[in-house]
Amino acid sequence: MSFPPNEPRPQWTHPPGTPGGHTFQYDTYGGFGVFAQATSTLPSGKKKRALVGGAITVVFAGSALGAWLLGAFQGDVLSTTSLERGVIDMLTDSYGEHDVSKAQCPANQQIDPGHTFACTVEVAGEERSVEIRVLNDKPEFEVGAPE
């Protein structure tokens, strides 16, 4: 903003009794109105404990849910890769099937003695099914003849 050279410039002054020109109105409740505190139903100590407890509960529940979704609570399971390799080896060594090209077994099979399930194998270009039975908790399993 520019002023003509012959006109006086306005002077900025502070109101009397206020250093720097800042004025505040003191609130009747014992503080400055701008900084009035919100009322709370809980005392500050209890409120802090409730917030910390709630945060801990949320973290714990989230961790438990994540572990459950990732399968941490389902117990010991057979390794699908090792199982499929073992099925191919068993069919080749014990049943004389020399043209076994692949095996597909369902994932997350429990290591419970007596538990049975089926795997699909490809023998001489033809898909067949074999039954698998878990023998013990070492884990050892039995492979049935291809059907």
Write up this protein:
This protein is of the alpha+beta class and 147 residues long. Helices cover 29% and strands 17% of the residues. Strands 1-2-3-4 form a four-stranded antiparallel beta sheet, with helices on one face. A hairpin with a 2-residue loop joins strand 2 (116-123) and strand 3. The longest helix is centred in the middle third of the chain and has 26 residues, at 44-69.
Order of helices and strands: HHEEEE
Radius of gyration: 39 Å
* Structural class determined from secondary elements: alpha+beta
- Measured by DSSP, the beta-strand proportion falls in 15-25%
Which oligomeric state applies? Answer: single chain
Shape: elongated
Spatial order of strands in the largest sheet: 1-2-3-4
Strand segment count: 4
Mean pLDDT: 76
Distance between the termini: 96 Å
Largest sheet: 4 strands, antiparallel
Region (Disordered): 1-20
Protein name: DUF4333 domain-containing protein
Organism: Haloechinothrix aidingensis
Transmembrane segments: 50-73
Topology summary:
Layout: H1 44-69, H2 80-95, E1 100-104, E2 116-123, E3 126-134, E4 141-143
Antiparallel strand pairs: 1-2, 2-3, 3-4
